[in-house]
């Protein structure tokens, strides 16, 4: 019994000790939590930082406003300014031809191309000259008969009406002889013309495009013997967009000069040795059917380089497809922008004074192959962004990579704000 009480006493002491340990552990945990909470409430708080946006690095150029000569490029074809098919007008056998009477030959104005046997036409002229002499004699005889009839009528002293008097005085016979004389004169004139037509001469300085006869051939009045093109000048038939017409100058009189045209004989190159010059002459009333383009013509003097002063120039051949550069009018106080720097057709990117992007629509007043000209939306000396941006946003921060570098265009310009005009016709 005593042992049982001792065991119960020890068991109670162990439970108390365990409770004390648990209580101590809970007390320590509570103290730790309270201490941690205290430090969390009373400790230093982190200060928020404002994140600065990173600017996009871009390339820019300064574009000054000035005067620019517009140049319009288009393709053209060399055509003859004068072209004829020669027809002799009389028939006969060809007995003589010009030494250069062959395709590609050159003939001077007035030189004889072919000669048709003239013997029959000479005989006809001689025959009609004799008929003319006879008609003149018959007229003189009739005039003598009329004078005799007048004297006889006076001696008779009869009174007759006007019709009877005309018959008595042989007036109808006189008119017949006069008409016969005129008829022979006309026939003789026609015979002389036919005789002259047996010699077919060049109407102007020309090159022969083709020939259809040779010595010994018989020709009729409607036979086309050759096709000629004048060598004094050729024309360039140029097709270009109709919106380009306001920038071109056409002569209003023969003394005026149209816009200058440079003609590149080799359309793939721009060597000065392959370039001829000309001037615009006319605007065609019709349009080119395929592309609905306007058609203009330019004149080129001595295209085949036949004159001594042009012997060192390349010849311009008929039918040649050429590239042309037409000098347009001078555009004043405009900005020239490369086509590749246009965005979405008619917008540009400009960096403002705060280095932020400004997206602007522009008014394009004229276009070249590689440039466009605008007269608003950008001031002289502003910075144009020429780099590409994946997601351009109005007002986004930019960093010019070449802010302190001047472009070749800028080096040619006076200081911004001087207002001096600059002719950039060859840029």
Give a description of the structure.
With 427 residues, this protein is of the alpha+beta class. It has three domains: 95 residues, conserved putative lor/sdh protein from methanococcus maripaludis s2 fold, CATH 2.40.420; 109 residues, Efflux pump adaptor protein, beta barrel domain (Elongation Factor Tu (Ef-tu), domain 3); 141 residues, OB fold (Dihydrolipoamide Acetyltransferase, E2P) (Beta Barrel). It is 28% helix and 31% strand. The strands form five sheets. Strands 3-12-15-14-13-16 form a six-stranded antiparallel beta barrel. A four-stranded antiparallel beta sheet has the order 2-21-17-18, with no helix packed on it. A hairpin with a 3-residue loop joins strand 19 and strand 20. Helix 2 runs antiparallel to helix 4. The longest helix is centred in the first third of the chain and has 41 residues. The protein is rod-shaped and about 200 Å long. The C terminus is likely disordered.
């Amino acid at each position: 019994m005593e042992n049982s009480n001792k065991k119960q006493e020890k068991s109670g002491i162990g439970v108390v000790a365990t409770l004390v340990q648990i209580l101590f552990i809970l007390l320590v945990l509570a103290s730790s939590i309270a201490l941690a909470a205290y430090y969390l409430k009373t400790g230093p708080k982190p200060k928020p930082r404002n994140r600065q946006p990173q600017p996009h690095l871009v390339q820019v150029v300064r574009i000054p406003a000035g005067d620019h000569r517009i140049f319009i490029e288009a393709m053209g074809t060399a055509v003859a300014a004068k072209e004829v098919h020669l027809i002799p007008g009389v028939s006969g056998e060809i007995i003589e031809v010009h030494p250069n009477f062959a395709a590609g030959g050159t003939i001077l104005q007035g030189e004889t191309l072919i000669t048709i046997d003239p013997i029959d036409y000479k005989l006809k002229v001689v025959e009609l000259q004799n008929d003319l002499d006879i008609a003149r004699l018959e007229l003189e005889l009739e005039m003598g008969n009329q004078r005799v009839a007048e004297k006889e009528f006076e001696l008779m002293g009869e009174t007759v009406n006007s019709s009877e008097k005309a018959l008595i005085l042989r007036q109808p016979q006189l008119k017949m002889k006069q008409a016969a004389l005129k008829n022979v004169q006309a026939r003789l004139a026609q015979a002389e013309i036919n005789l002259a037509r047996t010699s077919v001469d060049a109407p102007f300085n020309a090159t022969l495009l083709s020939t259809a006869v040779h010595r010994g051939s018989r020709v009729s009045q409607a036979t086309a013997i050759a096709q000629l093109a004048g060598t004094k000048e050729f024309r360039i038939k140029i097709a270009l967009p109709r919106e380009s017409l306001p920038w071109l100058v056409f002569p209003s009189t023969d003394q005026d000069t149209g816009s200058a045209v440079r003609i590149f004989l080799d359309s793939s190159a721009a060597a000065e040795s392959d370039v001829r010059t000309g001037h615009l002459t006319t605007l065609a009333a019709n349009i080119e059917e395929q592309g609905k383009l306007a058609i203009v013509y330019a004149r080129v003097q001595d295209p085949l380089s036949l004159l001594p002063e042009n012997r060192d120039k390349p010849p311009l051949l008929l039918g040649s497809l050429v590239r042309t550069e037409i000098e347009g009018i001078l555009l004043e106080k405009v900005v020239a922008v490369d086509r590749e720097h246009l965005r979405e057709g008619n917008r540009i990117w400009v960096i403002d004074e705060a280095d932020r992007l400004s997206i602007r629509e522009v008014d394009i007043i004229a276009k070249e192959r590689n440039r466009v000209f605008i007269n608003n939306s950008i001031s002289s000396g502003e910075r144009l962004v020429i780099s590409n941006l994946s997601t351009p946003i109005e007002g986004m921060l930019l960093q010019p990579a070449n802010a302190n570098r001047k472009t070749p265009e800028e080096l040619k310009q006076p200081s911004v704000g001087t207002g001096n005009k600059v002719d950039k016709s060859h840029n």
